[in-house]
Amino acid sequence: MGNLGASSALREHQLVAFWAPFLLLHLGGPDNIAAYELDDNKLWARQNLTLAGQALGAGYVLYKHISSGGEALFSLAAIFVSAVGFVKFSEKILTLRRASLSTIRDSARTETPANNCTFFLECEPPRRDTAQEEEFFKKHAHALFHVCKSAMVDSSVDDDDPNRISHHGSPARLLRGFKDQGMSYKWRLMEMELSLMYDILYTKAAMVHTLAGYCIRIASVLVVTASVLLFRFSGKAGYSRVDVAVTYALWDRLRRMVVSLHRIAYVTGIAGCFRLSRRWHGTMGQCSMLDMCTRRGTGKPTALSGMLGSSTSWTVEVPKKVKEQVVEHIGRIVKRKEINTLGVIRLNWRDSALKRRKRRKFNIKLARLHAEVQEAIVIWHIATDILLADQGKLIRTKEEETDVEAIKALSHYMMFLLLERPAMLPGLAQIKLRQRTEKTLAGKWKELSPAPSPNSASWIRSVMEFCGGGPNTDSRLQRREQLAKRLLERRPESDIRGVSSRVRFGIELARELVKWQSAKQDSLQILLDVWTDILVYTANRCSRESHAKQLSGGGELTTLIWLMAEHYHQASYCG
């Protein structure tokens, strides 16, 4: 573009003066995308250089066109588009600045909670009306959004300024009644608040829904429409047909960004009547260490299946039992004042669940009790998979079946975080811990199941299984059960370097759980309590920046749990 504007080719391609403003407008981006990563907001100041360079380039091309005697109507249309492009790009920079965590932190410290809430807040959600129910939770989320925004950037409660804690008005009333609401209400409210937080961090919502934002969009529609009409009725005798076609193609793209009915509906809020998907996806990632190791031992078919898109992880819907356990656990630790004034859980991951079992003499050595949370995930995950490998012997009632489903989901989810989302866990990423554990388990599986002969039939069967089957196919379940029985019968030998120590600890823990279950005690309840404790602990101890970054990829279950704990904590200050 710059080469064309600086050379004599501008005479042959006079429509370049119209293309340059299009490029400037395109850099402004659509309303539903402002940043792709959280770091884009941090680097908002660099966009000023981009704006200056692009604006000067477009202005230079336009100046060359006008000075060479370009047609007046065409020049006026190009000026209109340039003005819109400059304003839209400037708006994007302001959006990135307002979405940076430092700016949000400053605004959260100065603004008061939404006591000036002007809309009426119903106490109970409407029934059998999806649209009204969505609107109900949206209003409640807006009323309590100051809790989410403050928690995302700083402590949700400021002890130095007691006036920051509101005890009156609709938001305070909602907070006081938050703990008494049902599980479904709390879950839906957290989903809606995270959706609003995503809009603030990664879209232009913070600028769109202001008086200036509305004026910019109305003016953009009028100006772009006027520019295309001016171009349409200007003389095109001296223009190349190819250039004219390219210009109309660019304008069609511009129409989709600025003039489309979808954009108008988004700005005016009408789109909210038709879009009922402002919710978290409601799934949790899953990964099994035993499943990974039994697949790893099959050799080249595994690598080939990976090239074809197979993955070691999968997703499941969050079981209702998990939601109930989380809500109950958070309510219990807040009631016992196990959260300090900064909203951080006082006790370690093991204390809250296991201290309730001391009177029952559940024998667990200190090596397992005092492990770091990432080591604990590996140890308890191995023990859980070993115990549940033959789950048919454990399930006697419908309630136990529900417990087993929740335990498996929690165990596999925490392993998923350890392997694929290490930033969502407290502490440094333990890559060696994962590699050594996987190597030890894979070695045991290799001893149990020799590598198959490298024939075409075995390769095809393996690839079809890995790519077409799920984690609960009969063959994969059978292999996990075989490895679990092998580990339970023969634990790895102790070594000086402690490479296999976590596997040995997991096996010893599994044996304790098996003995406990054989004595008709509630080992399932112990596992459920421990995994819930670990889940809430890791969600609370994960950095706020990691929670914010993960929102760009759809968010995580731990982010929702962390936000729920913050609401419980804030509600405790409202009486």
TrEMBL record:
PANTHER family (UniProt xref): OS01G0798800 PROTEIN-RELATED (PTHR31325)
Superkingdom of origin: Eukaryota
Name this protein carries in UniProt: DUF4220 domain-containing protein
Domain DUF4220 span(s) in chain numbering: 9-250
InterPro entries listed in its UniProt record: DUF4220 (IPR025315), DUF594 (IPR007658)
